[in-house]
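Now for a typical sample entry:
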Amino acid sequence: MLREATADDVHLMLSWRNQETNRQVSKSSHEITAEEHARWWSAVRDDPTRRVLVYVHDGRPCGVVTFFDLRLDGPRTGAWGFYLDADGLAERGATLPAWLGVMREAVEYAFDGLHLARLDGEVLAHNTVVRQMNRRFRFVEGTPRQELSDGREITVIPISMAREEYVFSLS
């Protein structure tokens, strides 16, 4: 399930975001400081173009889903991203079920909750496992582009899903 993030979640979100596994597949690969994270939280918590949600799996908070660049008048569009408590889920043997669950819940929230016509996102080219999962969920990849982030050159691939493609046939 997804729920709104609160100030009580801020420290958990930072600890998950700074896990090595998550930093390796993020545009920002440096360890985020408490001050940097506090500035981010202050900026996003009341921003009408953003939503920050906590993913709860088996009764435990274990991930964050962010929606941003929301356009809710006119053609309803937005972008999203997520990260999980990779270390905690791996210890419990719950990585795959949580990963499938967070993607299902996030896409459902985008189309049934926010009523978007299109959902956009990005994935790093070397993150082949997520790219495969995105295709399974019917996201379409766009043209890759090179970016410089944290002193490294990365290849970023835009992804999108139109409302018409919103189906969960994961057999």
